[in-house]
Amino acid sequence: MTQNTSPRQGDEAAAQRLAAALSPAAIDALIKDAKAAGTPLDGAEGLLNQMTAAVLERALETELTDHLGYEPGAAEGWGTGNSRNGKTRKTVSTMNGPVEIDVPRDRNSSFEPVIVPKRARRIGNIDEMILSLYSRGMTTRDIEAHLREVYGVNASRELISNVTDVVVDEIRAWQSRPLDEVYPILYVDGIRIRVKDSGVVTTKVAYLAIGVDVDGRKHALGCWIADTEGAKFWAKVLSDLRNRGVKDVLIACCDGLTGLPDAIRVTFPEVVVQTCVVHVIRNAMRFVSYRDRKTLAKAMREIYTAPTVEAAELALGDFAKQHGQQYPGAVDVWRNAWDEFTPFLDYPPELRKVVYTTNAIESINFQLRKITKNRGHFPDKDAAMKLLYLGLRNISSRRGGHSGTGTHGWKVALNTLVNLFPGRLPF
What pTM was estimated for this model as a whole? Predict the structure, then answer.
């Protein structure tokens, strides 16, 4: 009487056979035989590669048997119209280095192997490794050298470029994906990159928009590369956000980007445009000698921690009296930013902590600058966008994945936003 074996029992039996094959005794025997034969453990002719080749070849044979429907030499294969037809030698790159394998063929050429697809020259995680190294700022030349030295894989720069090109469709989907209807806070900032344009290397700016949703999660809404700031460019960016579903923004936090405040107000009429206080302080500090920085930083703190607009105006007046003669540039920075700084003073402390700086976006920009600085310049905008997107994807995977990253103290800030902007938050 035949006893049926359940799938679970089959899995357990397979696990036991695998454990036996990988037992210390079995591995010790393999290593002992390799040493006796003078075979190294690693390298192109090493034990690991031989085992990899043997496993791949056996898996391919199993795939072909499944495709044909009969075992080699079995009588049921007669008259089926298809049969085994020899083997083809090929070399594939793996994480253990290049491996030579014999790939079985069928007479009708209808066999499409899965584990080593036709025309495939790389298996395993080679492509993922290339994308990972590229997203961390390594140049194609560096990746080529790294793969050759560490894994014995010959990956040309053209191949690396082709592998990274697989994200082009992903970038298009990311740039056009639907967004939330309301973002309580929108941060906008940019980083400078060098791009070849019409044969000349020029400086362009990649602008990044980070939206904080009603749950306090930060999301990269998009990235745009422009030659210069201006009303026309910002109108396009904000129209893009609008067309993708954004209907309202409560507070837009940015840093003196030409044309952006007016463009935001046109697109979202009820928005409050808030300049980044940290940027104002940094810009003012450019005019201050090193020995006086602590003194002026303390004086400026009296301005942005003032409880009211009137108190801040008095603090600015005192700042101008004490330091205006020596550092008029620092005083002018505050005066020029005043209209878009003062909304900040209407917020209670718990909300000020959230909106007073674009540090949320600056930390991301810092990471992007790290991965772009290795490039002397990009051959075109598409190449720049490819690296920036891969960098953003890599940062996102470390900082919260698709759900974004949280905002410290958000619940208290959210309740404050409800009071300040009644009826504008969706619940």
Answer: 0.66
